[in-house]
Specification:
mainly alpha; 2 strands; globular
Length: 208
């Protein structure tokens, strides 16, 4: 696949991302909330409807399957390696990225604790939802750190791994293109101009 074709696909992906943002804004109107400063604020009427749909804890546990409850401690044990991953990748990029000249990954862009504000969730549902948000956010955060590191140290695509892609992968040099690697690798190691600088970029961007 040529570089021009790859650039075209990346442009299509960015266009689809903008379309997804537009659809998200439509849902704000549909579900009666507004999103500002990383917080969703529901109307009072919506909150009242939500409270009517909340399942109390006794009914929640009664409805839960036995093996779901039995497996819960195993799920929560995963919090230990997740916290360690969080600490170590944050420490790693804080020390090493300035040395390599790599823009740091903004942690807040990947972790969003907002589901506890949903009135139709009970305490356990809120706790589980925020745990999932943390787990998947940390994994995405670590993946981005690893991807930027890979761009610096080994920006070469794999021969046949469609699942190995991340946000920096489209910039990598084709597998087997030795000439391009030797010619462009030093340039690619500094090619982060497409990454926004400054504070968190979670606010919906201007779609114009």
């Amino acid at each position: 696949m040529s570089s021009r074709r790859i650039d075209s696909i990346v442009a299509q992906i960015k266009a689809l991302e903008k379309e997804l943002i537009r659809e998200s804004r439509n849902k704000e109107t549909r579900f009666c909330y507004s999103f500002h400063q990383k917080k969703a604020k529901f109307t009072q009427a919506a909150k009242s409807r939500h409270r009517l749909l909340r399942l109390n804890l006794s009914r929640y546990f009664t409805r839960s399957k036995f093996f779901n409850l039995l497996s819960a401690p195993i799920i929560w044990m995963c919090l230990i390696p997740l916290v360690l991953l969080d600490v170590f990748v944050t420490l790693y990029q804080a020390i090493c990225f300035p040395i390599y000249g790599i823009p740091k990954v903004i942690r807040d862009d990947y972790i969003s604790f907002d589901r506890h504000r949903l009135s139709y969730l009970n305490f356990m549902e809120k706790l589980n939802c925020e745990y999932c948000a943390y787990a998947n956010g940390i994994l995405a955060y670590a993946t981005e750190i690893a991807g930027r590191t890979e761009q610096h140290w080994c920006p070469i695509k794999h021969a046949g791994c469609s699942k190995c892609t991340h946000s920096r992968y489209h910039k990598f040099i084709d597998y087997g293109d030795a000439e391009k690697y030797r010619r462009d690798v030093e340039i690619l190691r500094r090619s982060y101009e497409d990454i926004p600088t400054g504070k968190s970029n979670q606010e919906p961007p201007d779609l114009q």
